[in-house]
Amino acid sequence: MMRLMALILAYLFLALAIVGVFLPGLPTVPFLLLTAWFAARGSRRLHSWLYAHPHLGSLLINWEQHGAISRTSKVIAVLMLITSWGVMYHRLNNVWVLTGIAVMFVTVATYLVTRPEPDKEE
Questions:
Q1: Among 10, 13, 76, 90, which residue is least crowded by beta carbons within 10 Å?
Q2: Which residues of the chain have pLDDT under 70?
Q3: What angle, rounded to 10 degrees, do the helices at 95-114 and 71-91 form?
Q4: Are 24 and 84 in contact (CB under 8 A)?
């Protein structure tokens, strides 16, 4: 039963990660990391596919081995945070909500920017 639940969650988070590629404001990498974690517990086949994938695999391996995030991913993530906050600024009238979201976004951006970048030769 736990294996089935892990498999269902792995596919759910994979779907969210794929949607996040195309939808601004929905993060891709955290959902991808959750997919890998649940796939390791629910489906060796899905787990192997993720790590062998030409684009997704390198993100997972860099994070797992070095806690590293590519510069391109960092730039895209920070730009998406800024864009998302800008949209909310124009749509929300509550200064406290905007301030809270800004603090959260600055915290996330700071965390992302301070992560190491993967080695070029890998």
A1: 90
A2: 24-25, 120-122
A3: 180
A4: yes
Residue pLDDT, tens place only, 10-31: 999 999 988 887 876 677 778 8
Sign (positive/negative) of CA torsion 74, 80, 86, 88?
negative
Residue indicated by tokens 């945070």:
81
* Per-residue pLDDT, 24: 67
Residues sharing a CB contact under 8 Å with residue 31, sequence separation 6 or more, in sequence order: 13, 14, 16, 17, 20
Predicted pLDDT at 121: 52
Name the pTM for this structure.
Answer: 0.69
CA proximity to 9, closest of 28, 37, 29, 30: 37
Helix (H) or strand (E) segment spanning residue 53: none
For the chain, what is the largest distance between any 2 Cα atoms, rounded to a whole number of angstroms? 48
d(CA 35, CA 12): 8
Alpha-carbon torsion (109, 110, 111, 112), positive or negative: positive
